[in-house]
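agent: user wants the full assembly modeled, not chains individually. Plan: 1) parse entity lines 2) check alphabet per entity 3) run joint structure prediction 4) return tokens. Steps 1-2 passed, two entities, 743 residues total. Proceeding.
--- entities ---
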Amino acid sequence: MGFNIAMICDFFHPNVGGVENHIYMLSANMLRRGHKVIVITHSHPPDRVGIRWLLPSLKVYYLPYPTIASSATLPNYFAFLPYLRSIILREGVQIIHGHAGLSSLAHEGILHAHLMGVRTVFTDHSLFGFDDAASILTNKLLEAALRNVDAAICVSHTGRENTVLRARLLPDIVHVIPNSLVADQFKPAPSPPSGDTITVVVVSRLAYRKGIDLLIATAPRICALFPNVRFLIGGDGPKMIDLLQMREKYLLQDRIEMLGPVRHSDVRDVLIQGSIFMNTSLTESFGIAILEAACAGLYVVSTKVGGVPEILPEDMISFANPDEDDIVRAMSEAIRLVSAGKHDPHKAHERVRGFYDWRDVAQRTEAVYESIMKSQPYDFWTRMHRTLDLGPVAGIIFAIILVVDCLFFMFLEWWLPEDQLDKVQMHWTPERFQEVVEEYET
Amino acid sequence: MYTEAWEAEWERVLWKKKPYPDNYVPRSFLASLSKNPNFRPYTYWHLVILSCPISQHLASIFVFLAVFMRLQQRLLDPRVLVWISVGVFMAGYLAWELLECSRADSQTRYTNRAKTLKASILVFLALMSLSPVLKTLTAATSSDSIWALSACLFILNALLADYTPMNPRSHQRERLTSVLSMNAAISSSVVLASRLSDDLSVFGLILFSVQSFALFPILRRRIQDTAKVLQVALTVLISTLSLALTYPLSNTAAYIYFACFTFVTFIAPAVLVWAQRYKNEIRGTWDPAVPKVNRRFSFSR
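--- prediction returned ---
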């Protein structure tokens, strides 16, 4: 019998993005492996509220919390407990799996978990620095949230080093399990793009952190060097205006095509129009966009930052320093290599398919769940001591939060005793479903 | 036993199938971490020199307050103050000219001089005609409120003032905070002026405040850019002047000022030098890279 898992994150469907997709795919594959998975997130009024089911029988709780900025809820530490307690007890959840460093819902879930004897796992998806005020604050919040977590998962070795430093965790409870992709959704074009024209594709949020300044500086130079190169740029963001100005200034309207925002389901159709994918990010934890492009058979040129050097073997990607001249050099080499026909899209697709698979990710995550279920949980006094170790100021604040949380939980136990809650009855199991399908087919 | 084999197998890649568990900590873990990479320790005397502008600014506020007290208690004839102001202005302008003469050509200097003359006559006349209005502007407000308000405004002035040297070659625009700082000081002197008895005192005080809070900071920032000796001499001179003017009025205030100067010039730099031992800047591969672009576009975050 599998585990009962609750994925908690502020960022989930109907929003789109890397984290959202990761949670959905991981949940779907966990369901396939015979676990019971629910997702807890905040609601998206007016219509995305209450309890919904997503396609492979994934139950999603949309809790009524207002968001403050970029779809994150306000960290308040207590308001979530009444909902969470009812959900966890009714569903019989054994493991809480929080996602994303800036999701206060995930932090809160991890804080409350021990009250109900639930074990905790946290997945960190992004990289953060240490040197500005916002990072210092969010790193402290993360450290406090992860003080008593049973295991953490990071998507790359760089991410792991970053998380270990930010949250001051012991490195052996932090696991490296990469992100993955559905290779079938990124099949290369049946026939390679014809003609002499080489199309360079850029699909990215047009923001400073994605290195759009480098793109703006290099695109005109590459266009001048190679008359047969055109650019296809998908995405939207604050740097859009700068890009448009560059295109106007160098009169490149016919060679640089701007597509505006691209839906994730349409990304493959954009990718297969080109043969080189260019990524100029300044920081990247994993770089799923690069992987998707490589899977769609494009040759990748990327800046050597964060976890990007870890995701593909060196013959499928060429690296440049985040420096205008070096990017022009790497792009020129890539254009020569592709025009000489030395890059086979279908071979690249098959190779990526062999590297990454969600089933593998789910299996490795399951191993993490098994290891924490076998381990001993911290008792209350150990938790208290560990919380006080946070620091002379933060330690006391979070110790008070811990104690008030326990008192609040005792009040809820008295107000709404566990035996008065309706337990969720599941009449369907994956085995039963399989049987019915077989009966239907025969 | 496994560890050796795992260590040999370990690679910093994600795409390979690997024999070691996901939470295996390799020996190269955190190898790319660097601490305090661009760390240049401060030296004590360098910081002492850098703290001079702060002392100068505080001293100019203290001198102004001493002058105000004397005017209010009728220890100082307002006509003398006006003549002193004019004299100080001449001296300051001479110093400015001497600093400028190395730079601009004679034609620009000539036009600049004409402009300055016109502006100073305008300000002089405007203040003279406005002083009866300024005198009664906040006359109805009780003295307690005036003292509190002007104290707050002077603190604001000291906090927001621009203590960086002015580089005459780069035509940088005045920062918003330094404009706010100047406005705070001038408003403070306007509210103080309402406690004075006659129009000429008000005129003298406002003229002096324009000198100390609008013109002096410009000269101070210009001097900061040049000789260190001049800067130290100016600091000593103006600090001594503020103490000398305050001591007959109130020795307690003079002692507090003295403590203030000692703290800003000698103790605060020592604290900063001592605090450097706790500096711990962590850099690694996760930090956002700084894009190197040959300057053609201005880029902002």
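agent: reporting back. The beta strands of chain B are 34-35, 282-283. Residues 297-301 of chain B have pLDDT under 50 and may be disordered.
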